[in-house]
Amino acid sequence: MTDLLPASEGPVVSYGARAGMLPPYPKGWFCVGFSADLPAGAVERVTFAGRESVLFRTASGRLGLLDAYCPHLGAHLGRGGRVADETIRCPFHGFTFDTAGRCRSTSYGQPRSPRLAVATRPVEERHGLILAWHGGETIEWHVPEASTDGWTAWSTRTSTIVAHPQDTVENGVDIGHFAAVHNYLEVTPLDELKLDGPLLGARYQVRRRRGLGAITMDYTIEAHGLGHSLVETHIPELGMRVRQLILASPVDGTVIQLRLALSIYRSSPVRAHNAAAAIAATAVGRWLVQRWAVAAFAADIQQDVAVWQHKRYVHRPALVPGDGPITSYRRWAEQFYGPESWPETAGEAFCR
């Protein structure tokens, strides 16, 4: 992973304070890591939705996301803790806890008190991502698995920025910023905005400047909640398909972790339209295209981050024709906010 995005400039101000009343911790599934970065036996410290946590993978490959502090005498399980078979071992007194937070052993024998349980969060893996649920013990929906057959391994980037998860998904419906920020020549919606429970879907065809000419791209956007956006791009001139993931996870009410991932489809086009498409169909060509696509993707996100980090949330924006379906989007986003979305109650979203 490479921290490719720009760091925040100047003093960091709580997004909640800048936003007025937009809660910093929406309900849903959020990426807390990439599967490839957490092999069996690994332990990672994670700050997620206002809580210090520890993410680990057992010897058999099971995932656990626990409150970071041992209930015995408060040691941080992510600082010196290690995986012992199917548990994580506390560095202070050697107590062990399984992925469900249950104490399995102590240095004095078997545990006898239910008070030794550690709070946990639901966690699961989807297409190379480690996703954690915020919103209480009842999981209301899941991010569907996306087939990775025929696709290259993810190229990933991670950064910590001042922003809110709602900003990152709103970009997909804010048609007006495509030209002003990203230099698009044309933006043509191909379908009406789809809003179905936690699912948002949108399709666009765009023309973008590339050197002295322009290139056509067809975008299909599928967001599941405010933490997981998958964009599939078809580039007819190259006969290529590209996948992009934009993954925003709330950290502490001040910043989010923004993870990006990109993959290209390996299969050659049925017929090479031109010399560029023929080159792109080769293994070397795919490698070059993926490097180019990652750089272009990161450059686009850098342009967005430059705005996100210094904007404030406007509850009643003065919208004009050409902005896109922002009002519909914001009504859809309201479903992800509840009591657990505020800092003083976010900790109650842990399961015990």
Task: Give a verbal description of the structure.
This protein is α+β, with helices and mostly antiparallel strands and 352 residues long. It folds into two domains: 40-121, Rieske Iron-sulfur Protein; 155-333, Naphthalene 1,2-dioxygenase Alpha Subunit, Chain A, domain 1 (Alpha-Beta Complex). It has seven helices and 18 strands. The strands form four sheets. Strands 11, 12, 13, 14, 15, 16, 17 and 18 form an eight-stranded antiparallel sheet that branches. The protein has a four-stranded antiparallel sheet with strand order 5-6-7-8, with no helix packed on it. The two termini are 33 Å apart.
Q: Based on helices, strands and strand pairing, what is the structural class?
A: alpha+beta
**What kind of assembly state do the chains in view correspond to?**
single chain
Per CATH, what is the topology of the largest domain? Naphthalene 1,2-dioxygenase Alpha Subunit, Chain A, domain 1
* Number of beta-strand segments: 18
| Strand proportion | 25-35%
Give the topology, please.
Elements: H1 15-19, E1 28-34, E2 43-48, E3 51-57, E4 63-67, E5 82-84, E6 87-89, E7 96-98, E8 103-105, E9 123-126, E10 129-134, E11 155-161, H2 165-170, H3 176-182, E12 184-189, E13 194-196, E14 199-210, E15 213-224, E16 228-235, E17 240-250, E18 256-264, H4 275-280, H5 283-308, H6 326-333, H7 343-346
Antiparallel strand pairs: 1-10, 2-3, 3-4, 5-6, 6-7, 7-8, 9-10, 11-18, 12-14, 13-14, 14-15, 15-16, 16-17, 17-18
